[in-house]
Amino acid sequence: MRTLPLLIAAAFYAALSAIACGSAEGQADRRAAAPSAPDGMAIFKQYCVVCHGADGKMGLNGAKDLSLSTLTLDERINTISNGRKLMTPFNEVLSADEIKAVAKYTLTLKKQ
Ligand code: HEC
C-alpha cells in the first residue's frame, strides 16, 4: 500500500496544474480560440439593465417586461439590432455575434 500516497500526490498535482491553466494564460488561449462566443449576460448587464433591469422586468422608458416577452430569438435579434420606440438600435454598438448572445440571454429571463 505504499503507492496510495503517491497516487494522491499525483492527483493533487494534476488538479493544481489544471487550476494553473485556468489563469491568465489559459484565458487568453480560450479567447483566441473562440472569438465568436461573447458573454450574453455580461452584455445585458452593460447595455440593457438601464431600461430592462437585471431580471428584465424593470420596464423603464416603457421597456417591455422581458420575462413576459413571447418573441422568438430572431425577433429579439431584430428588435435589439434595429431598436424600437425608445429602445436604441444596438447594431452600431454590438457585433452580430454579441447581439445574438444577448438575445439568447434574454430568453433565459423568461418565466417558465
Ligand atoms: C433606452 C432604454 C432601453 C435599452 C437600453 C434597451 N431596451 Fe429593450 N426595449 C426598450 C423599450 C422601450 C422596448 C419596447 C418597445 C416597444 O414598445 O415596442 C424594448 C423592447 C425590447 C425587446 C422586445 C420585447 C417584446 O416582447 O417586444 C427586447 C427583446 C429587448 N428590448 C431587448 C433588449 C436588449 C437585449 C437590450 C440590450 C442590448 C435592450 N433591450 C436595451 C428599451 C430599452
Query: Low-confidence runs (pLDDT<50, min 5 residues)?
Result: 12-17, 19-27
Distance between the termini: 53 Å
The largest β sheet comes out as: none
Give the helix tally. Answer: 6
Structural class: mainly alpha
Reported CATH architecture of the largest domain: Orthogonal Bundle
**Structure ligands:** heme C
> Please, what is the CATH homologous superfamily of the largest domain?
Cytochrome c-like domain
Query: SSE order, as H and E?
Result: HHHHHH
Number of strands: 0
Number of domains: 2
CATH class of the largest domain: Mainly Alpha
Structure description:
- This protein has 112 residues and is mostly helical.
- The chain has 2 domains: 3-33; 40-107, Cytochrome Bc1 Complex, Chain D, domain 2, CATH 1.10.760.
- It is built from 6 helices and no strands.
- The chain has helices spanning 3-21, 24-33, 40-47, 49-52, 73-82, 96-107.
- Helix 3 packs across helix 6 (96-107) and helix 5 crosses helix 6.
- The model is unreliable at 12-17 and 19-27 (pLDDT under 50).
- Heme C binds at residues 44, 47-48, 50-52, 61-64, 66, 69, 71, 76, 79-80, 84-88, 90, 102, 106.
Q: Which key phrases capture this entry?
A:
2 domains; 6 helices; binds heme C; 112 residues; globular; single chain; mainly alpha
Quick take:
With 112 residues, this protein is mainly alpha-helical.
Record the SSE blueprint.
Layout (H helix, E strand, L loop, with lengths): L2 H19 L2 H10 L6 H8 L1 H4 L20 H10 L13 H12 L5
Helix pairs in contact: 3-6, 5-6
The structure holds heme C.
The site of heme C has 24 residues, from α3, α4, α5 and α6.
